[in-house]
Amino acid sequence: MAGNSKADCKDPKCPIHGGLKVRGTSLQGRVVSAKAKKTAIVEIDYTRYINKYERYLRKRSRIPSYNPDCIAAKEGNVVTIAETRRLSKTKSFAVTGIVK
Ligand SMILES: [Zn+2]
Fold it and tell me: With 70 as the cut, is the pLDDT of residue 6 above it?
C-alpha cells in the first residue's frame, strides 16, 4: 500500500492518528475519484423500498470524504467511511480504511 507508514502520520485531521473524532454513520462504498488532494469521492449503492410499487428502488449517492495520506485510497478501492465534523464545504466524512 502506498503512503506514509503509520508511525510518521502527523496529520491532525487523520481519523486514526490525528485528533479527528468520528461519530454517527459508518458506510462502505467504492472510490470513484481520488483526484482532489486528500479527498476521495465515495459512491454508495443502496436500495429504498417504494410502498406504491412494492419494490425496491436502487439508488446511488456520492459522498466526498477526507482521504488522509496514511490511507491514500485510490480509484476503485472499496473503503469504509465514517461521519465526522464538517471538514469543508462539502466534506463531512473521512475514509477510515480500505476493504480491498
Ligand atoms: Zn494517519
Answer: no
